[in-house]
Amino acid sequence: MAWVNAIIQGILTGGLYALFACGLSLLFGVMKVVNLAHGDLAVVGAYIGIGVIAVTHMPFLWSIPVVLVLMAVLGYVLQRSVIQAALSRGELITLIVTFGLSIVIENGLQQFFTANTRGIDVGSSIVTSSFSIGSQIQIGWLPVIIFALAVIVLLALQYFLSASKYGRLIRAVADDREAALLSGVNSRHVFGVAAAVAFATVGLAGVAYGMSGVVSPTTGTDTILLFAFAAVVIGGLGSLWGTLLGGIVLGVAQQVGAQINISYEALAGYIIFLVVLVFRPQGLTARRTQS
Amino acid sequence: MTESPLLEVHGLTVHHGQLRAVSDVSFSVRPGEVYAIIGANGAGKSTLLRTIAGLNHPSSGSVLLDGTDVTRLRAEKRATAGISLVPEGRRLFPSLTLEENLKVGASYARRGPWDIPAVLELFPFMKDRRGQKTAQMSGGEQQQVAISRALVANPRVLLLDEVSLGLAPVIVHRIYDVLPRILASGVTVLLVEQDVAQARRVASQMQCLLEGRTTLEGRPSDFTSEQVEAAYFGLAGGNTGGAH
Protein backbone atom coordinates (compact mmCIF):
# COMPACT_ATOMS: atom_id res chain seq x y z
CA MET A 1 0.00 0.00 0.00
CA ALA A 2 2.87 2.34 0.74
CA TRP A 3 4.03 1.89 -2.85
CA VAL A 4 0.62 2.63 -4.26
CA ASN A 5 0.56 5.73 -2.11
CA ALA A 6 3.99 6.78 -3.42
CA ILE A 7 2.83 6.37 -7.00
CA ILE A 8 -0.38 8.36 -6.45
CA GLN A 9 1.51 11.16 -4.71
CA GLY A 10 4.07 11.07 -7.51
CA ILE A 11 1.43 11.42 -10.20
CA LEU A 12 -0.13 14.38 -8.39
CA THR A 13 3.27 16.07 -7.97
CA GLY A 14 3.74 15.53 -11.69
CA GLY A 15 0.86 17.93 -12.33
CA LEU A 16 2.79 20.72 -10.61
CA TYR A 17 5.94 19.87 -12.58
CA ALA A 18 3.95 19.95 -15.82
CA LEU A 19 2.62 23.37 -14.88
CA PHE A 20 6.23 24.55 -14.50
CA ALA A 21 7.37 22.84 -17.67
CA CYS A 22 4.71 23.84 -20.20
CA GLY A 23 5.84 27.49 -20.38
CA LEU A 24 9.44 26.40 -20.83
CA SER A 25 8.37 24.02 -23.57
CA LEU A 26 6.26 26.69 -25.29
CA LEU A 27 9.09 29.24 -25.36
CA PHE A 28 11.50 26.67 -26.72
CA GLY A 29 9.04 25.28 -29.24
CA VAL A 30 8.12 28.67 -30.66
CA MET A 31 11.25 30.79 -30.36
CA LYS A 32 14.01 28.29 -29.66
CA VAL A 33 14.65 30.25 -26.48
CA VAL A 34 15.98 28.13 -23.63
CA ASN A 35 14.82 30.31 -20.80
CA LEU A 36 17.24 29.82 -17.90
CA ALA A 37 15.27 32.39 -15.87
CA HIS A 38 12.16 30.24 -16.01
CA GLY A 39 12.41 28.98 -12.43
CA ASP A 40 13.06 32.46 -11.09
CA LEU A 41 10.02 33.74 -12.95
CA ALA A 42 7.92 31.12 -11.16
CA VAL A 43 9.28 32.45 -7.88
CA VAL A 44 8.45 36.00 -9.02
CA GLY A 45 4.89 34.79 -9.61
CA ALA A 46 4.75 33.34 -6.10
CA TYR A 47 6.13 36.54 -4.55
CA ILE A 48 3.66 38.67 -6.49
CA GLY A 49 0.93 36.51 -4.98
CA ILE A 50 2.42 36.82 -1.49
CA GLY A 51 2.88 40.57 -1.90
CA VAL A 52 -0.59 41.21 -3.27
CA ILE A 53 -2.23 39.26 -0.45
CA ALA A 54 -0.09 40.98 2.20
CA VAL A 55 -0.86 44.47 0.90
CA THR A 56 -4.51 44.19 -0.10
CA HIS A 57 -5.62 41.38 2.25
CA MET A 58 -7.63 39.94 -0.59
CA PRO A 59 -8.58 36.24 -0.46
CA PHE A 60 -5.70 34.16 -1.81
CA LEU A 61 -7.68 32.89 -4.78
CA TRP A 62 -8.21 36.43 -6.03
CA SER A 63 -4.47 36.95 -6.19
CA ILE A 64 -4.24 34.41 -9.03
CA PRO A 65 -5.72 36.64 -11.78
CA VAL A 66 -3.50 39.49 -10.59
CA VAL A 67 -0.43 37.27 -10.89
CA LEU A 68 -1.53 36.03 -14.33
CA VAL A 69 -2.00 39.54 -15.71
CA LEU A 70 1.20 40.98 -14.22
CA MET A 71 3.28 38.02 -15.39
CA ALA A 72 1.78 38.21 -18.88
CA VAL A 73 2.67 41.91 -19.09
CA LEU A 74 6.17 41.16 -17.79
CA GLY A 75 6.51 38.40 -20.40
CA TYR A 76 5.47 40.66 -23.25
CA VAL A 77 7.76 43.50 -22.17
CA LEU A 78 10.78 41.26 -21.53
CA GLN A 79 10.28 39.53 -24.88
CA ARG A 80 9.98 42.77 -26.83
CA SER A 81 13.03 44.24 -25.12
CA VAL A 82 15.73 41.99 -23.72
CA ILE A 83 14.92 38.56 -25.18
CA GLN A 84 14.18 39.85 -28.70
CA ALA A 85 17.42 41.83 -28.70
CA ALA A 86 19.25 38.64 -27.72
CA LEU A 87 17.39 36.56 -30.32
CA SER A 88 18.43 38.90 -33.12
CA ARG A 89 22.04 38.19 -32.17
CA GLY A 90 21.76 34.41 -32.17
CA GLU A 91 20.28 31.59 -30.15
CA LEU A 92 23.34 31.18 -27.95
CA ILE A 93 23.07 34.79 -26.79
CA THR A 94 19.60 34.09 -25.39
CA LEU A 95 21.15 31.50 -23.06
CA ILE A 96 23.55 34.09 -21.67
CA VAL A 97 20.89 36.77 -21.44
CA THR A 98 18.33 34.59 -19.66
CA PHE A 99 21.08 33.36 -17.33
CA GLY A 100 21.83 37.00 -16.52
CA LEU A 101 18.13 37.64 -16.06
CA SER A 102 18.02 34.75 -13.62
CA ILE A 103 20.81 36.28 -11.50
CA VAL A 104 19.22 39.72 -11.57
CA ILE A 105 15.82 38.36 -10.51
CA GLU A 106 17.26 36.20 -7.75
CA ASN A 107 19.26 39.03 -6.24
CA GLY A 108 16.43 41.48 -6.68
CA LEU A 109 14.11 39.18 -4.75
CA GLN A 110 16.69 38.78 -2.00
CA GLN A 111 16.97 42.54 -1.75
CA PHE A 112 13.23 43.11 -1.43
CA PHE A 113 11.98 39.98 0.31
CA THR A 114 15.14 38.82 2.18
CA ALA A 115 16.38 35.25 1.92
CA ASN A 116 13.70 33.90 4.28
CA THR A 117 11.33 31.25 3.01
CA ARG A 118 7.69 32.20 2.64
CA GLY A 119 4.51 30.48 1.61
CA ILE A 120 1.13 31.62 0.40
CA ASP A 121 -1.20 31.31 3.37
CA VAL A 122 -4.22 29.41 2.17
CA GLY A 123 -5.86 29.42 5.62
CA SER A 124 -8.00 26.48 6.65
CA SER A 125 -10.15 25.69 3.68
CA ILE A 126 -10.69 22.79 1.36
CA VAL A 127 -7.16 23.12 0.07
CA THR A 128 -5.62 22.15 3.40
CA SER A 129 -7.90 19.17 3.98
CA SER A 130 -7.53 15.73 2.55
CA PHE A 131 -9.46 12.58 1.91
CA SER A 132 -8.49 8.95 2.36
CA ILE A 133 -8.76 5.84 0.25
CA GLY A 134 -8.72 2.80 2.52
CA SER A 135 -6.78 3.15 5.72
CA GLN A 136 -3.31 3.93 4.42
CA ILE A 137 -3.67 6.33 1.52
CA GLN A 138 -4.29 9.96 2.32
CA ILE A 139 -4.62 12.40 -0.53
CA GLY A 140 -4.54 16.13 -0.02
CA TRP A 141 -7.06 18.20 -1.93
CA LEU A 142 -4.44 20.79 -2.88
CA PRO A 143 -2.31 18.41 -5.00
CA VAL A 144 -5.49 17.13 -6.64
CA ILE A 145 -6.60 20.68 -7.45
CA ILE A 146 -3.15 21.57 -8.80
CA PHE A 147 -3.13 18.45 -10.96
CA ALA A 148 -6.57 19.34 -12.34
CA LEU A 149 -5.34 22.89 -12.90
CA ALA A 150 -2.36 21.56 -14.88
CA VAL A 151 -4.67 19.52 -17.10
CA ILE A 152 -6.94 22.53 -17.62
CA VAL A 153 -3.96 24.78 -18.47
CA LEU A 154 -2.64 22.22 -20.98
CA LEU A 155 -6.08 21.87 -22.58
CA ALA A 156 -6.41 25.65 -22.77
CA LEU A 157 -2.92 25.99 -24.26
CA GLN A 158 -3.68 23.33 -26.82
CA TYR A 159 -6.91 25.07 -27.78
CA PHE A 160 -5.15 28.42 -27.93
CA LEU A 161 -2.39 27.11 -30.18
CA SER A 162 -4.57 25.04 -32.50
CA ALA A 163 -7.76 27.06 -32.83
CA SER A 164 -7.18 30.74 -32.04
CA LYS A 165 -5.91 33.38 -34.42
CA TYR A 166 -2.84 34.13 -32.32
CA GLY A 167 -2.13 30.44 -31.86
CA ARG A 168 -2.13 30.06 -35.63
CA LEU A 169 0.17 33.05 -36.04
CA ILE A 170 2.52 31.70 -33.38
CA ARG A 171 2.79 28.39 -35.23
CA ALA A 172 3.26 30.19 -38.54
CA VAL A 173 6.09 32.36 -37.18
CA ALA A 174 7.68 29.31 -35.56
CA ASP A 175 7.52 27.48 -38.92
CA ASP A 176 8.89 30.24 -41.13
CA ARG A 177 9.43 33.74 -39.78
CA GLU A 178 10.15 35.34 -43.17
CA ALA A 179 7.08 33.82 -44.81
CA ALA A 180 5.00 35.15 -41.91
CA LEU A 181 6.45 38.64 -42.40
CA LEU A 182 5.41 38.44 -46.05
CA SER A 183 1.84 37.90 -44.87
CA GLY A 184 2.05 41.09 -42.82
CA VAL A 185 2.55 39.27 -39.51
CA ASN A 186 4.60 41.26 -37.01
CA SER A 187 6.73 38.40 -35.70
CA ARG A 188 8.02 40.40 -32.72
CA HIS A 189 4.51 41.09 -31.50
CA VAL A 190 3.54 37.43 -32.01
CA PHE A 191 6.59 36.31 -30.01
CA GLY A 192 5.58 38.81 -27.34
CA VAL A 193 2.14 37.24 -27.10
CA ALA A 194 3.69 33.76 -26.88
CA ALA A 195 5.98 34.95 -24.09
CA ALA A 196 3.02 36.56 -22.28
CA VAL A 197 1.17 33.24 -22.33
CA ALA A 198 4.25 31.29 -21.23
CA PHE A 199 4.95 33.73 -18.38
CA ALA A 200 1.33 33.59 -17.21
CA THR A 201 1.53 29.79 -16.94
CA VAL A 202 4.80 29.92 -15.03
CA GLY A 203 3.34 32.57 -12.71
CA LEU A 204 0.40 30.28 -12.02
CA ALA A 205 2.83 27.44 -11.36
CA GLY A 206 4.71 29.66 -8.92
CA VAL A 207 1.54 30.47 -7.00
CA ALA A 208 0.64 26.76 -6.88
CA TYR A 209 4.12 26.01 -5.58
CA GLY A 210 3.84 28.74 -2.97
CA MET A 211 0.54 27.28 -1.77
CA SER A 212 1.81 23.72 -1.49
CA GLY A 213 5.12 24.61 0.12
CA VAL A 214 7.45 27.52 0.68
CA VAL A 215 9.60 29.55 -1.68
CA SER A 216 12.77 31.51 -1.21
CA PRO A 217 14.55 33.66 -3.78
CA THR A 218 16.83 30.76 -4.71
CA THR A 219 14.09 28.15 -5.15
CA GLY A 220 13.82 29.06 -8.81
CA THR A 221 17.27 27.92 -9.89
CA ASP A 222 17.97 25.19 -7.36
CA THR A 223 14.63 23.37 -7.65
CA ILE A 224 12.02 24.59 -10.12
CA LEU A 225 14.20 25.13 -13.18
CA LEU A 226 15.81 21.71 -12.85
CA PHE A 227 12.49 19.92 -12.41
CA ALA A 228 10.94 21.81 -15.30
CA PHE A 229 13.86 20.93 -17.56
CA ALA A 230 13.73 17.30 -16.49
CA ALA A 231 9.99 17.13 -17.19
CA VAL A 232 10.41 18.73 -20.63
CA VAL A 233 13.29 16.45 -21.61
CA ILE A 234 11.59 13.28 -20.35
CA GLY A 235 8.35 14.14 -22.08
CA GLY A 236 9.81 15.42 -25.32
CA LEU A 237 10.75 18.95 -26.37
CA GLY A 238 7.95 21.06 -27.75
CA SER A 239 5.19 18.60 -26.88
CA LEU A 240 2.57 19.98 -24.46
CA TRP A 241 1.14 16.66 -23.33
CA GLY A 242 4.67 15.32 -23.18
CA THR A 243 5.35 17.77 -20.37
CA LEU A 244 2.49 16.25 -18.36
CA LEU A 245 3.82 12.75 -18.95
CA GLY A 246 7.36 13.94 -18.18
CA GLY A 247 6.16 15.62 -14.99
CA ILE A 248 4.35 12.48 -13.89
CA VAL A 249 7.33 10.20 -14.63
CA LEU A 250 9.59 12.57 -12.69
CA GLY A 251 7.14 12.85 -9.79
CA VAL A 252 6.60 9.10 -9.52
CA ALA A 253 10.34 8.41 -9.71
CA GLN A 254 10.97 10.87 -6.88
CA GLN A 255 8.23 9.50 -4.64
CA VAL A 256 9.22 5.88 -5.26
CA GLY A 257 12.84 6.82 -4.60
CA ALA A 258 11.80 8.48 -1.36
CA GLN A 259 9.87 5.36 -0.43
CA ILE A 260 13.06 3.30 -0.72
CA ASN A 261 15.10 5.82 1.23
CA ILE A 262 14.11 9.39 1.89
CA SER A 263 17.51 10.63 0.73
CA TYR A 264 16.98 9.07 -2.71
CA GLU A 265 14.11 11.36 -3.63
CA ALA A 266 16.00 13.83 -5.84
CA LEU A 267 18.47 11.17 -7.00
CA ALA A 268 15.75 8.87 -8.38
CA GLY A 269 14.31 11.74 -10.41
CA TYR A 270 17.65 12.51 -12.04
CA ILE A 271 18.39 8.84 -12.70
CA ILE A 272 15.15 8.57 -14.71
CA PHE A 273 16.08 11.82 -16.45
CA LEU A 274 19.47 10.42 -17.47
CA VAL A 275 18.03 7.04 -18.49
CA VAL A 276 15.58 8.78 -20.82
CA LEU A 277 18.38 10.96 -22.21
CA VAL A 278 20.49 7.90 -22.98
CA PHE A 279 17.83 5.58 -24.40
CA ARG A 280 15.24 7.95 -25.80
CA PRO A 281 16.88 11.37 -26.22
CA GLN A 282 13.92 12.72 -28.22
CA GLY A 283 11.69 12.19 -25.16
CA LEU A 284 8.84 9.80 -24.53
CA THR A 285 6.21 11.46 -26.72
CA ALA A 286 8.25 13.07 -29.49
CA ARG A 287 6.50 12.35 -32.78
CA ARG A 288 8.91 13.74 -35.29
CA THR A 289 12.63 14.15 -35.42
CA GLN A 290 14.08 17.59 -34.98
CA SER A 291 14.87 19.12 -38.33
CA MET B 1 -1.44 59.90 -71.32
CA THR B 2 1.18 58.10 -69.21
CA GLU B 3 -0.28 56.70 -66.03
CA SER B 4 1.78 57.28 -62.91
CA PRO B 5 3.64 54.13 -61.95
CA LEU B 6 2.42 51.96 -59.06
CA LEU B 7 5.81 50.52 -58.18
CA GLU B 8 9.10 52.27 -58.82
CA VAL B 9 12.61 51.04 -58.21
CA HIS B 10 15.36 53.63 -58.42
CA GLY B 11 19.05 52.73 -58.64
CA LEU B 12 18.74 49.72 -56.38
CA THR B 13 21.99 48.11 -55.28
CA VAL B 14 21.99 45.13 -52.92
CA HIS B 15 24.97 43.36 -51.41
CA HIS B 16 25.21 39.85 -50.01
CA GLY B 17 28.25 40.41 -47.85
CA GLN B 18 31.00 41.24 -50.34
CA LEU B 19 28.98 40.16 -53.34
CA ARG B 20 27.11 42.80 -55.29
CA ALA B 21 23.95 40.82 -56.10
CA VAL B 22 21.94 43.68 -57.62
CA SER B 23 23.66 46.61 -59.26
CA ASP B 24 21.97 49.94 -59.88
CA VAL B 25 18.69 48.51 -61.17
CA SER B 26 15.81 50.84 -62.02
CA PHE B 27 12.36 50.26 -63.47
CA SER B 28 8.76 51.21 -62.94
CA VAL B 29 5.60 49.15 -63.10
CA ARG B 30 2.34 50.78 -64.15
CA PRO B 31 -0.99 49.73 -62.63
CA GLY B 32 -2.54 46.65 -64.21
CA GLU B 33 0.49 45.50 -66.14
CA VAL B 34 2.64 42.39 -65.92
CA TYR B 35 6.29 43.25 -65.57
CA ALA B 36 8.72 40.37 -66.03
CA ILE B 37 12.31 40.15 -64.93
CA ILE B 38 14.27 37.43 -66.65
CA GLY B 39 17.79 36.24 -66.18
CA ALA B 40 19.92 33.18 -65.56
CA ASN B 41 20.55 31.55 -62.22
CA GLY B 42 22.34 33.92 -59.88
CA ALA B 43 21.49 37.01 -61.94
CA GLY B 44 20.05 38.69 -58.83
CA LYS B 45 16.36 38.32 -59.68
CA SER B 46 15.27 36.80 -56.38
CA THR B 47 17.38 39.23 -54.39
CA LEU B 48 15.71 42.08 -56.26
CA LEU B 49 12.21 40.81 -55.40
CA ARG B 50 13.17 40.12 -51.78
CA THR B 51 14.50 43.66 -51.48
CA ILE B 52 11.28 45.09 -52.90
CA ALA B 53 9.35 42.99 -50.34
CA GLY B 54 11.60 44.20 -47.52
CA LEU B 55 13.36 40.94 -46.65
CA ASN B 56 16.73 42.19 -47.92
CA HIS B 57 18.07 45.68 -47.43
CA PRO B 58 19.59 47.72 -50.23
CA SER B 59 22.98 49.41 -49.91
CA SER B 60 21.58 52.24 -52.01
CA GLY B 61 18.57 53.15 -54.08
CA SER B 62 14.90 53.30 -53.23
CA VAL B 63 11.58 51.52 -53.66
CA LEU B 64 8.38 53.55 -54.10
CA LEU B 65 4.83 52.27 -53.88
CA ASP B 66 2.31 54.61 -55.48
CA GLY B 67 4.75 57.49 -55.02
CA THR B 68 5.47 56.77 -51.34
CA ASP B 69 9.00 55.78 -50.39
CA VAL B 70 8.82 52.39 -48.65
CA THR B 71 12.55 51.65 -48.61
CA ARG B 72 12.76 52.01 -44.84
CA LEU B 73 9.52 50.12 -44.14
CA ARG B 74 9.82 46.70 -42.47
CA ALA B 75 8.70 43.66 -44.47
CA GLU B 76 5.44 43.14 -42.55
CA LYS B 77 4.49 46.81 -43.04
CA ARG B 78 5.16 46.59 -46.76
CA ALA B 79 2.90 43.55 -46.93
CA THR B 80 0.06 45.47 -45.30
CA ALA B 81 0.81 48.44 -47.56
CA GLY B 82 0.08 46.20 -50.56
CA ILE B 83 3.26 44.42 -51.65
CA SER B 84 2.87 40.63 -51.48
CA LEU B 85 5.69 38.30 -52.40
CA VAL B 86 5.20 34.65 -53.36
CA PRO B 87 8.71 33.60 -52.39
CA GLU B 88 11.03 31.26 -54.21
CA GLY B 89 10.51 27.72 -52.98
CA ARG B 90 6.92 28.64 -51.94
CA ARG B 91 7.71 28.72 -48.22
CA LEU B 92 4.36 27.46 -46.97
CA PHE B 93 3.96 26.85 -43.24
CA PRO B 94 4.58 23.08 -43.04
CA SER B 95 2.87 22.41 -39.72
CA LEU B 96 -0.28 24.29 -40.77
CA THR B 97 -3.11 22.96 -42.89
CA LEU B 98 -3.91 24.44 -46.29
CA GLU B 99 -6.77 26.48 -44.85
CA GLU B 100 -4.64 27.70 -41.94
CA ASN B 101 -2.00 28.83 -44.41
CA LEU B 102 -4.65 30.89 -46.17
CA LYS B 103 -5.97 32.25 -42.87
CA VAL B 104 -2.49 33.47 -41.94
CA GLY B 105 -2.31 35.17 -45.34
CA ALA B 106 -5.64 36.86 -44.65
CA SER B 107 -4.84 37.90 -41.05
CA TYR B 108 -3.73 41.40 -41.94
CA ALA B 109 -5.42 41.68 -45.32
CA ARG B 110 -6.29 44.95 -46.99
CA ARG B 111 -9.85 45.39 -48.18
CA GLY B 112 -10.46 44.03 -51.64
CA PRO B 113 -11.97 41.37 -53.86
CA TRP B 114 -9.87 38.43 -52.65
CA ASP B 115 -10.80 36.26 -49.71
CA ILE B 116 -10.61 32.55 -48.94
CA PRO B 117 -13.77 31.54 -50.87
CA ALA B 118 -12.51 33.52 -53.88
CA VAL B 119 -9.14 31.75 -54.03
CA LEU B 120 -10.87 28.39 -53.56
CA GLU B 121 -12.79 29.25 -56.75
CA LEU B 122 -9.55 30.26 -58.47
CA PHE B 123 -7.85 26.93 -57.64
CA PRO B 124 -10.75 24.51 -57.13
CA PHE B 125 -8.53 21.55 -56.16
CA MET B 126 -8.01 23.27 -52.80
CA LYS B 127 -11.67 22.97 -51.80
CA ASP B 128 -11.51 19.31 -50.84
CA ARG B 129 -8.10 19.53 -49.25
CA ARG B 130 -8.50 22.43 -46.89
CA GLY B 131 -7.69 20.31 -43.84
CA GLN B 132 -4.53 18.77 -45.27
CA LYS B 133 -1.00 19.66 -44.31
CA THR B 134 0.66 21.31 -47.29
CA ALA B 135 3.87 19.31 -46.89
CA GLN B 136 2.15 16.28 -48.44
CA MET B 137 1.09 18.18 -51.56
CA SER B 138 2.81 18.22 -54.93
CA GLY B 139 4.98 21.13 -55.99
CA GLY B 140 2.32 22.51 -58.31
CA GLU B 141 -0.33 22.33 -55.62
CA GLN B 142 1.97 24.01 -53.11
CA GLN B 143 2.65 26.76 -55.63
CA GLN B 144 -1.06 27.39 -56.06
CA VAL B 145 -1.52 27.53 -52.28
CA ALA B 146 1.39 29.98 -52.03
CA ILE B 147 -0.16 32.25 -54.68
CA SER B 148 -3.50 32.02 -52.88
CA ARG B 149 -1.90 32.88 -49.55
CA ALA B 150 -0.46 36.03 -51.11
CA LEU B 151 -3.68 36.92 -52.94
CA VAL B 152 -5.96 36.80 -49.89
CA ALA B 153 -3.96 39.73 -48.49
CA ASN B 154 -5.39 41.76 -51.41
CA PRO B 155 -2.07 43.13 -52.61
CA ARG B 156 -1.72 46.06 -54.96
CA VAL B 157 1.40 44.47 -56.41
CA LEU B 158 1.88 40.72 -56.47
CA LEU B 159 5.51 39.63 -56.72
CA LEU B 160 5.94 36.13 -58.14
CA ASP B 161 9.34 34.53 -57.73
CA GLU B 162 10.04 31.64 -60.12
CA VAL B 163 6.53 30.24 -60.16
CA SER B 164 7.53 27.67 -62.82
CA LEU B 165 10.65 26.39 -61.08
CA GLY B 166 10.68 22.60 -60.88
CA LEU B 167 7.15 22.17 -62.24
CA ALA B 168 5.90 20.23 -65.26
CA PRO B 169 5.00 22.47 -68.23
CA VAL B 170 1.32 21.50 -68.04
CA ILE B 171 1.19 22.61 -64.40
CA VAL B 172 3.01 25.84 -65.24
CA HIS B 173 0.39 26.57 -67.91
CA ARG B 174 -2.44 25.90 -65.46
CA ILE B 175 -0.94 28.36 -63.00
CA TYR B 176 -0.31 31.04 -65.63
CA ASP B 177 -3.86 30.54 -66.91
CA VAL B 178 -5.24 32.32 -63.82
CA LEU B 179 -3.06 35.39 -64.37
CA PRO B 180 -5.72 37.24 -66.44
CA ARG B 181 -8.23 36.81 -63.59
CA ILE B 182 -5.74 38.14 -61.08
CA LEU B 183 -5.04 41.15 -63.32
CA ALA B 184 -8.75 41.70 -63.91
CA SER B 185 -9.25 42.03 -60.14
CA GLY B 186 -6.96 45.08 -60.21
CA VAL B 187 -3.75 43.44 -59.01
CA THR B 188 -0.50 44.44 -60.71
CA VAL B 189 2.06 41.69 -61.23
CA LEU B 190 5.84 41.77 -61.08
CA LEU B 191 7.33 38.39 -61.82
CA VAL B 192 10.69 36.77 -62.04
CA GLU B 193 11.23 33.92 -64.50
CA GLN B 194 14.02 31.72 -65.78
CA ASP B 195 11.66 30.52 -68.50
CA VAL B 196 12.07 33.30 -71.05
CA ALA B 197 9.36 32.08 -73.43
CA GLN B 198 6.82 31.99 -70.61
CA ALA B 199 7.81 35.46 -69.44
CA ARG B 200 7.60 36.93 -72.96
CA ARG B 201 4.16 35.42 -73.43
CA VAL B 202 2.58 37.03 -70.35
CA ALA B 203 4.53 40.25 -69.82
CA SER B 204 3.71 43.70 -71.10
CA GLN B 205 7.12 45.00 -70.05
CA MET B 206 10.28 43.13 -69.27
CA GLN B 207 13.88 43.51 -68.33
CA CYS B 208 16.79 41.14 -68.32
CA LEU B 209 19.37 40.91 -65.55
CA LEU B 210 22.89 39.61 -65.94
CA GLU B 211 25.11 39.44 -62.86
CA GLY B 212 22.92 41.99 -61.14
CA ARG B 213 22.89 44.51 -64.01
CA THR B 214 20.15 45.42 -66.46
CA THR B 215 21.11 44.22 -69.93
CA LEU B 216 17.83 44.82 -71.75
CA GLU B 217 14.61 46.64 -71.05
CA GLY B 218 11.40 47.24 -72.97
CA ARG B 219 8.33 45.56 -74.41
CA PRO B 220 8.75 41.85 -75.20
CA SER B 221 7.72 42.49 -78.82
CA ASP B 222 10.55 45.04 -79.20
CA PHE B 223 13.20 42.33 -79.17
CA THR B 224 14.08 39.34 -81.28
CA SER B 225 14.85 36.03 -79.60
CA GLU B 226 18.50 36.52 -80.53
CA GLN B 227 18.63 39.86 -78.75
CA VAL B 228 17.02 38.40 -75.61
CA GLU B 229 19.37 35.45 -75.72
CA ALA B 230 22.36 37.74 -75.98
CA ALA B 231 21.19 39.79 -73.04
CA TYR B 232 20.37 36.66 -71.02
CA PHE B 233 23.75 35.01 -71.46
CA GLY B 234 25.84 38.15 -71.90
CA LEU B 235 27.02 37.13 -75.36
CA ALA B 236 29.11 39.63 -77.27
CA GLY B 237 27.57 40.68 -80.57
CA GLY B 238 24.05 41.17 -79.26
CA ASN B 239 23.42 44.84 -79.83
CA THR B 240 21.97 45.31 -76.35
CA GLY B 241 24.40 42.90 -74.68
CA GLY B 242 26.75 43.93 -71.92
CA ALA B 243 29.86 45.73 -73.12
CA HIS B 244 33.14 44.01 -72.48
Folded structure, characterized:
The complex is a heterodimer of chains A (291) and B (244). With 291 residues, chain A is an all-alpha fold. Chain A has a domain at 20-217. Chain A has eleven helices and two strands, in the order H-H-H-H-E-E-H-H-H-H-H-H-H. In chain A, helix 10 (240-260) packs across helix 11. The longest helix of chain A is centred in the N-terminal third of the chain and has 30 residues, at 2-31. The relative contact order of chain A is 0.21. The model of chain A has no long low-confidence stretch (mean pLDDT 91). In chain B, the strands form two sheets. Chain B has a six-stranded mixed β-sheet with strand order 6-7-8-3-9-10, with helices on both faces. Chain B has a four-stranded antiparallel β-sheet with strand order 2-1-4-5, covered by helices on one side. Chain B has one domain: P-loop containing nucleotide triphosphate hydrolases (Rossmann fold). Chain B has helices at residues 45-53, 75-81, 98-106, 116-122, 139-151, 169-177, 179-184, 196-202, 225-233, and strands at residues 7-16, 19-29, 34-39, 60-65, 68-69, 83-86, 157-161, 188-193, 205-210, 213-218. With 244 residues, chain B is α/β, with parallel strands linked by helices. Chain B contains nine helices and ten strands. The relative contact order of chain B is 0.18. Chain B is globular and about 50 Å long. In chain B, helix 3 runs parallel beside helix 5 (139-151). Chain A binds chain B through residues 165, 168-169, 171-172, 174-176, 178-187, and chain B through 53-55, 74-77, 79-80, 84-85, 87, 91-96, 100-101, 103-105, 107-109, 149-150, 153.
